[in-house]
Amino acid sequence: MTDTPDPGRHGRLSVMFSAVDGVRIVALHGEIDHAVTDELSRALIPVDGATPPRTVVDLSDVTFMDSSGINVFIAAHHRVNESRGWLRIAAPQEPVLRVIRLIGLDAVIPYHATLEQARTA
Q1: What is the C-alpha end-to-end distance of the chain, expressed in Å?
Q2: CB 20, CB 36: distance < 8 Å
Q3: Which residue, among 39, 36, 17, 31, has the nearest Cα to 99 in the 3D structure?
Q4: Spatial contact of 90 and 62, defined as CB atoms under 8 Å apart
Q5: Edge to edge, what strands does the sheet with 23-32 contain?
Q6: Beta-carbon neighbour count of residue 76 at 10 Å?
Q7: Are 82 and 114 contacting, i.e. CB atoms less than 8 angstroms apart?
Q8: For residue 6, what pLDDT is reported?
Q9: Collapsing DSSP states into helix, strand and coil, what is residue 113?
Q10: Contact 13, 36 (CB under 8 A)
């Protein structure tokens, strides 16, 4: 496993990258709203065009997410599907899970209770 902190950090969101058995882990900490969508997009959809085929987004430390975050997740999902990969969500807290279910993102991107379950499903 390798940890790579994102050098750019918004006041309300931080991003850590790691990899386990070829699965890219993107661990998010803080809040996801309109102010951080560019940062979230860069974390989930690399600008170099190389979309990792298998990505798990760890939301265990995300305390808030609004619809702008949902839009970024959907765009990232489409990009990895085009590359025949997958995107999964891990360990969302109850307030974030409520938004995921309300919007119907769980019908598009699978979520799992733990990081390990998301990585190995």
Answers
A1: 18
A2: no
A3: 31
A4: no
A5: 2-5, 13-20, 23-32, 54-65, 86-90, 111-112
A6: 21
A7: no
A8: 46
A9: coil
A10: yes
The pTM of the full predicted model, rounded to 2 decimals, is 0.87
Rg (Cα) of the chain, in Å, rounded? 13
Q: What is the pLDDT of residues 70-96, one digit of tens each?
A: 999 999 999 888 888 899 999 999 999
pLDDT at site 72: 96
> Residue with structure tokens 């119907």?
104
According to DSSP, the β-strands at 2-5 and 111-112 are unpaired
Task: Retrieve residue 34's tokens.
Answer: 């309109």
**CA 31/CA 80 separation, integer angstroms:** 23
- Identify the pLDDT of residue 114: 97
State pLDDT tens for residues 26-72.
999 999 999 999 999 999 986 665 666 899 999 999 999 999 999 99
Rounded-to-integer distance, Cα 64 and Cα 117, Å: 22
